[in-house]
Amino acid sequence: MAEDGCCEKGPGYATPLEAMSGPRESLLYVTCIYTGTGKGKPDYLATVDVDPSSPSYSKVIHRLPVPYLGDELHHSGWNSCSSCHGDSSKQRRYLILPSLVSGRIYAIDTQKDPRAPSLHKVVEPEDILKKTGLAYPHTAHCLASGDIMVSCLGDKDGNAEGSGFLLLDSEFNVKERWEKPGHSPSFGYDFWYQPRHKVMISSSWGAPAAFTKGFNLQHVSDGLYGKHLYVYTWPGGELRQTLDLGDSGLLPLEIRFLHDPSKDTGFVGCALTSNMVRFFKTPDGSWSHEVAISVKPLKVQNWILPEMPSLITDFLISLDDRYLYLANWLHGDVRQYNIEDLKNPVLTGQVWVGGLIQKGSPVVVEAEDGKTWQAHVPEVQGKRLRGGPQMIQLSLDGKRLYVTNSLFSAWDNQFYPDLSQKGSHMLQIDVDAEKGGLAINPNFFVDFGSEPDGPSLAHEMRYPGGDCTSDIWI
């Protein structure tokens, strides 16, 4: 497909390095949420113009509302990606939108008019429950077979024990669970597969019955949140190993292998303990792990706890596997690490784009010498930055990082209560991919506080041609 930067091939690119030479992004699809804000409006998919030469640059140019209320759109994935590059019959056409709360899954046609996507099909939660018992769908990845795999975080009652992996066929019909009977994880969240090593590894957030009500630290002690990685055979679906990350790995969320499909290592962001954990294959074929990056909690005044974790809620890896980027949702900074030496990541860039400790906030940080400080967060186009950096997306060439600031409506309302009233925003950060470094682009600011139906919460971002968190190479 020409728009995917190739000819006479399937979707995407032959290699991650080839993808880096793909066309510059001109559109971004963003999940926008009214669920949990009290506005009584359906969530929607926004199309944002990110072409600097366009008259509508840095603006929402289309909104596709979903037909139901209360969905909580969250993450998104494609019906087909670079894992199908060798199959010319496949097309990257449909964006998959799982609804984390309602359990509904939408297939959105982005091909008829990429600037104005349309609803193609709705997969009803009753169909999913009837055939699989799964609910609370989260991450969607396309498979080389043409099927779509979706991680689900619990059963209809919000119990984590009901989590597992849903398979949809290429027509978005519910097939079955992917994992073998008796091989379901104890918790669900994200997953990534690396076929050359015949492995899929998934992570663990918590029981939907707990996290949908907001975050309660007691629930961690009660065992309602995860600290494990689940190692599966690929494509067999047998749970072969469970990695206990211990107290240094509480709430392991986003998980990514290196993009090079020959590599047997990856990272997972552990939100509550604010560590990046590296996992890797050992000589005997089993998997092990170690803390690779640690963001220390800050001693604070005027907050709910005496120490504030950074809360790493998203990270990604550049397509050349040189840099890792992470977002600290509570502290408010985005970081860039050089990971060419996987055992010794080096901090090469940092920028403050929000957070609870910015100047003007009641929360102050207490340094070891007793002095207090707050982070300087610049205004962008005259606007004070709200919330904290949450989801991030990197351009294919690795030179631009996009940032939104909503995590999940119940958690937004708890930690950043003004976000649902004032709305999210999207930023663009310029990246020095040679020497390292990050800087806010002052010419780009998408204000979801001024949406026609009122302020909305913006979460995951996708390019029409795929990106470094949607595409997997085989």
Topology:
Elements: H1 16-19, E1 27-33, E2 44-49, E3 59-65, E4 77-78, E5 94-98, E6 105-109, E7 118-123, H2 125-132, E8 135-142, E9 148-154, E10 164-168, E11 174-177, E12 191-194, E13 199-202, H3 208-211, H4 217-221, E14 228-233, E15 239-244, E16 252-257, E17 265-270, E18 275-281, E19 287-294, E20 298-301, E21 307-308, E22 312-317, E23 323-328, E24 333-338, E25 346-352, E26 364-366, E27 372-373, E28 392-394, E29 400-403, H5 409-415, H6 419-422, E30 425-431, E31 438-447, E32 457-462
Question: Outline of this structure?
Answer:
This protein is mainly beta and 474 residues long. The protein has helices at residues 16-19, 125-132, 208-211, 217-221, 409-415, 419-422, and strands at residues 27-33, 44-49, 59-65, 77-78, 94-98, 105-109, 118-123, 135-142, 148-154, 164-168, 174-177, 191-194, 199-202, 228-233, 239-244, 252-257, 265-270, 275-281, 287-294, 298-301, 307-308, 312-317, 323-328, 333-338, 346-352, 364-366, 372-373, 392-394, 400-403, 425-431, 438-447, 457-462.
